[in-house]
Amino acid sequence: MIAGRLSLAAALVIAISAGPAPAQDKLKVVATFSILADLVQNVGGDRVEVSALVAPNGDAHVYAPTPADARTLGAAQVVVTNGLGFEGWIERLVKASGTKAAMAVASKGVKPRRAESDHDHGGSDPHAWQSVGNAKIYVANIRDALVKADGAGKTTYEANAGAYLAKLDALDNEVKTTIARIPADRRRIITTHDAFGYFKDAYGLDFIAPQGVSTESEASARDVASIISQIKKQKIPAVFLENVTDPRLLKRIGEESGAKIGGTLYSDALTDGNGPAPTYIDMMRHNVRQLATALMS
Amino acid sequence: MYDILIAPFVDYEFLRRALVGVLALALGAGPVGVFLMLRRMSLMGDAMAHAILPGAAIGFLFAGLNLFAMTAGGLIAGFVVALLAGLVARATEIKEDASLAAFFLISLAVGVTIVSMRGTNIDLLHFLFGSVLALDDQTLLLIAVIASFSLVVLAVIWRPLVLECVDPGFLRSVSRAGAPVHVAFLALVVMNLVGAFHALGTLLAVGLMMVPAAVGRFWARDVTAMIVIAVGTGIFSGITGLLLSYHTAVPAGPAVILVAGVLYAGSVLFGRVGGLAQRLLPTRHLEA
Predict the structure, then answer these.
(1) Residue A18 pLDDT grade (very low, low, confident, very high; cuts 50, 70, 90)
(2) For the domain with range A8-173, which CATH number is right: 1.50.10.20, 3.40.50.10800, 3.40.50.1980, 3.10.20.30?
(3) Nearest by CB to B136, which of A57, A222, A251?
(4) So where are chain A's domains?
(5) pTM
(6) Chain A contact for B210 (CB, 8 A cutoff)
(7) Do A220 and B120 touch (CB under 8 A)?
(8) Domains by residue range for chain B, with CATH
């Protein structure tokens, strides 16, 4: 009993001496959407207080900023954006909020790929985090931004980033070995949202989408017809739903073409704690498992 | 010719389903639209369509994209708004249109709030636009049942309904059917809108109801002929709109309503009953 209390006391002492700074001293970081917020949290650890403007399960493409968001931004010390034209609304929001926060673009240094359809995001595909290699660039950028804003935490940030980067390396390997087990001629799927361009380039799995790069456009009869004939012609084995676009349309396509309807893939929003993808690593792992199950059955 | 007009429907099941859906909608909503127009309530359909949103949204929150939850929610919200608006208009000084405007706007605001409170903002787009290309068996069945039901009810209440449109005072003097017929008719409006809502979304659900009716008005003087023309216009717009969407990649729902809009523009110019050309030519003839 006494020993228990002592160790508890010892734990408390350690927590106080080495542990988190009090809440008001934490570095206030605002990330534009949930995936970035997760990366920032992993690098910043206890020294930062992260909030995401677009909540888990929300769609950053059609997000409408609220006055509360402007207030959050106003109080922020660092704002982390994805860049590549992903958050078309952020510039105006930053101006409106009058924030003095340091701006950091997480995708700086990522080699942008052309969007598959040409009507959005100024032509480049913003979903760079779908390749773990790019996520590592994101982490490095976030680390540098945090160090710049809060020099006292340099060692913590560098240690956290180092540990997280090692995890990402393991994740990258896991994705590669899982994809390698799928027969090469079955590495093709259809999904509602073509946010997987970087995934395709990095891991060699073909994603074909019935809609454009953005979720803003409504599918026409011609789009749906061409995707169905494509499935039939190329014998595409699986169709995937996604958490941000119309599932009814996908179901119809699956039924009519005979392709297997896979589970949900998460592309540009994490789920909340109860969902299958509360963190970036969980999301990538979940996606690749879903893909493997559907394509290997 | 075959390739342009028939082949798409032969090749693709989803287009056949969309076709059946819009045909059923045209059959059910056309006559209802004509009566709405004759009673000078053309804009009421639009108001009701927006009033449906919160009901469908609540249904969506409880059960996801579940047909029955969203339909039941939409029906309840529509009825509540229609009845409340009518009650307030009769019990107070305010006119029915103002009362309806107030209620549907409140309802719409509630709907948008509910949808956005769940943190997901994309779902609202599905409510606003629907998906005529993604009709499953249940939805088709629902639309067909609503269309059949509203045709049967219209047949039953036909005489008092026509009378109430042209001479409500006379109807009141010979029968007390006026109020129940009015309520039954409102129910038909709400039901048809909820059916159309699944295929076309809240914004365009009214389109297949009112635009064909307005076209009918330009070509016929008696109610029956007006309805036949309205239904015909609806069917033509449905088929042509889907083909347009198939050949030119215009979104399907708007394409259907746009075709009806072109027919309306033609009718305004050349309509036999009160069209512009017809109004201008006889005057010249008389002067000569």
Answers:
(1) very low
(2) 3.40.50.1980
(3) A251
(4) 8-173, 174-296
(5) 0.67
(6) no
(7) no
(8) 2-274 (1.10.3470.10)
pLDDT value at A3 more than 80? no
Task: State whether residue B134 sits within 8 Å of chain A by CB.
Answer: yes
Give the Å distances, CA to CA, from B194 to A171, B25, B31, B78, B150.
Answer: 47, 11, 16, 9, 12
The structure tokens listed for B247 are: 């050949």
CB atoms within 10 A of CB B268: 15
To the question of domain A174-296 being in CATH 3.40.630.10, the answer is: no
Integer Cα distance of A100 and A269 in angstroms: 27
Q: Which of A3-7, A43-47, A196-200, B104-108 is predicted least confidently?
A: A3-7
Question: Any bridge partners for residue A207, and if so which?
Answer: A189
Q: In Å, what is the CA distance from A106 to each residue of A32, A128, A145?
A: 11, 10, 9
Between A289 and B115, the more confident residue is A289
Among chain A residues, the shortest Cα distance to B255 is held by A220
Q: What is the pLDDT of residues B21-56, one digit of tens each?
A: 999 999 999 999 999 999 888 888 888 888 888 888
**What percent of chain B lies above the pLDDT cut of 90?**
42
